[in-house]
TrEMBL record:
Specifically dimethylates two adjacent adenosines in the loop of a conserved hairpin near the 3'-end of 18S rRNA in the 40S particle. PANTHER family: DIMETHYLADENOSINE TRANSFERASE, DIMETHYLADENOSINE TRANSFERASE-RELATED. Belongs to the class I-like SAM-binding methyltransferase superfamily. rRNA adenine N(6)-methyltransferase family. This is rRNA adenine N(6)-methyltransferase. HAMAP family: 16SrRNA_methyltr_A. The keyword Transit peptide does not apply. Gene3D superfamilies: 1.10.8.480, Vaccinia Virus protein VP39. Residues 48-217 form the Ribosomal RNA adenine methylase transferase N-terminal domain. It catalyses: adenosine(1779)/adenosine(1780) in 18S rRNA + 4 S-adenosyl-L-methionine = N(6)-dimethyladenosine(1779)/N(6)-dimethyladenosine(1780) in 18S rRNA + 4 S-adenosyl-L-homocysteine + 4 H(+).
Length: 317
């Protein structure tokens, strides 16, 4: 897995203005150019930046990971409190602007700028993550953070409003979905503030929200991949009963194949009268979830169901 490069101060990145302005995905609102394909919307309201930093509860001993610092409006606020900031910026032009902003100042020694794709590299140690997140990496970033070890204390992340509301949705909410369950399995998530589109330059087409994510410590001892494998089935039709979702022949074929593979690997004899449909029915019946609907079940319900399936040697990956 490639590592992103740390940018040394004093090295600027320049791009031919003619080439940059010729593409339809780039808009000049003020220097430097902003690339719409990278989801670049710079937070310009200092009151919002200050509020985000306050919600993070930073300590003067904290190392902060900032994803997508842009020109550094939020970065400078973080540096007022944190011991160190590691800023990961995809666009070398914006990274160069941030370098200029701290060059020769005390903050320079406490800021490490890394140029590259945050999703494609191992993250350094950090206590808190703060991000005005490019919308196209919202989901990958969350799960990358939750997989990071050692665990961080919290993450204050800005997302598109609807995405943020999915993260905090509860059973029965219209936006409650597979994303809600998978994130809430490993973390507590809180909606902490709304941010209007006019607080950015250039303004995005959608409203934003800021959430606070606190990973559970210790994390649950469950395979995220297997848990998601089950959740994927249940939320394919979240308002149907679990019994109805598990009647799908392709689902039953996959589970039967997984069952036989598991038994073979663990030298478990398979009964001659084995019937995957009946085994699944027995699991749903014994847990009391036969007529339940995924849209109304919580994380504990799903964990109970997965545990019972595993006890019957049925796995989802």
């Amino acid at each position: 897995m490639p590592k992103i490069k740390s940018q040394k101060f004093g090295h600027s990145h320049q791009k031919n203005n003619k080439d940059a302005s010729s593409g339809s995905s780039v808009t000049r609102t003020f220097a430097p150019l902003f690339n719409k394909n990278l989801g670049q919307h710079i937070l310009k309201n200092p009151l919002v930046s200050q509020s985000i930093v306050e919600k993070a509860g930073l300590k003067n001993t904290d190392t902060v990971l900032e994803v997508g610092p842009g020109t550094g409006n939020l970065t400078m606020r973080i540096l007022e409190t944190a011991k160190k900031v590691v800023a990961v910026e995809m666009d070398p032009r914006l990274a160069a602007e941030l370098i200029k902003r701290v060059l020769g100042k005390p903050e320079q020694k406490r800021l490490n700028i890394m140029v590259g794709d945050v999703i494609k590299t191992e993250l350094p140690y950090f206590d808190v993550c703060i991000s005005n997140t490019p919308y196209q990496i919202s989901s990958p970033l969350i799960f990358k953070l939750l997989e990071h070890r050692p665990l961080f204390r919290c993450a204050i992340l800005m997302f598109q409003r609807e995405f943020a509301l999915r993260l905090v949705a509860k059973p029965g909410d219209s936006l409650y979905c597979r994303l809600s369950v998978n994130v809430q399995l490993f973390a507590k998530v809180y909606h902490i503030m709304k941010v209007g589109k006019n607080n950015f330059k250039p303004p995005p087409q959608v409203e934003s929200s800021v959430v606070r994510i606190e990973p559970l410590n210790p994390p649950p001892t469950v395979s995220a991949k297997e848990f998601d494998g089950m959740i994927r089935i249940l939320f394919s039709r979240k308002n149907k009963t679990l019994a109805a979702n598990f009647k799908n022949k392709s689902v039953l074929d996959i589970l039967e194949n997984n069952y036989k593979t598991y038994c073979s690997t663990n030298e478990i004899m398979i009964d001659k009268d084995f019937d995957i449909k009946q085994v699944v029915h027995n699991v749903l019946d014994s847990t009391g979830f036969l007529e339940s609907r995924a849209a109304k079940m919580d994380v504990d319900d799903f964990l109970k169901l997965l545990y019972t399936f595993n006890q019957a040697n049925i796995h989802f990956c």
